[in-house]
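chain below, 344 aa
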Amino acid sequence: MEKFEDIIQKYNYELPEKLIAQKPASPRDEAHLLIYSRTDDKIYCDKFLNIAKYLPQNAVLVFNETKVLPARLNLKKETGGKVEILYLKSRGGLLEFLADRKLNVGSKIFLNRNIVFEVVAHEEKNYLLKPLFDAKKFEIILEKYGVAPIPPYIKHSPLSKGQLKQQYQTIFAKYSGSAAAPTASLHFTKRVLASLKKAKVDVKFITLHVGLGTFAPLTQENLKTKKLHAEFYNIDKKTAEFLNKAKHQGRPIIAVGTTVARTLEASVRNGQLKNLSGQTDIFISEGYKFGFIDGMVTNFHVPKSSLLMLVSALVGKDKIIEIYKFAIAKKFKFYSFGDGMLIR
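prediction:
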């Protein structure tokens, strides 16, 4: 049996640090676009602005309209020491957080004199906090005081915290709950959406709230169980009906991002979207038979990651590494704020 390290190593590649994007293109749709056509095994290059002309005829684009929560808060302990916490989820009137240093159960931490949390439990790496204020106002507090949980590889961005918060959000973000942006969608601007409408490309929206697990390194357990971290998704009934009809008509379904791919593939049963809401821990990798999507818009992903493995399931492991090496040679920018790719 092949060793875990040997399997993961097949999804490795060397990336010069200067190609890790520290800010998005300005405007965003001026990012580069790599187009890989599976029918003729050819690569094309253009600006993202022109994506409409490369989409298959009668294509339907599906976006994720999740909204990134500015989930990091900087607070003070009763001792006066600083602590940074990262909101994960609500649990029966309590709030679950990660903290960058030890907190004592029973102690209090302060944002200011009106916004105070009591530490009520410590479970492994996570803390349960009780808000000593109106919990209904918590999301408003995050929006006002919180910092966007920017990926760890964006270390030298020239953008301010406020600019990062704004730029690390899609223009159609609607439902709060993500720890990370669906980054393939960051390239889409009003003029790109207008060009899609002009080209009579139908656009639909689903929701998947991206969890922190998206940044976690793969483990042997992931490969063994064929499961990843669980994430909540929802597909509106009318959207599902439209997409099911389009699929039945043979129209190409293009997922904008790995989050949309996970959602649609988690929902599909016998070629139709049926499980429209719930948690998905689906792990898509090479050898997976896609049941619903026919193509994908995606960014360039971190080596040895589940996201890279998902994209490889569409084109093959060797081909995706070949495409990435081509992109590196052409000096494409990588990761969240980087350039985009269309696989059709």
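The chain has a mean pLDDT of 94. The CA atoms of residues 65 and 172 lie 6 Å apart.
thats it, cya
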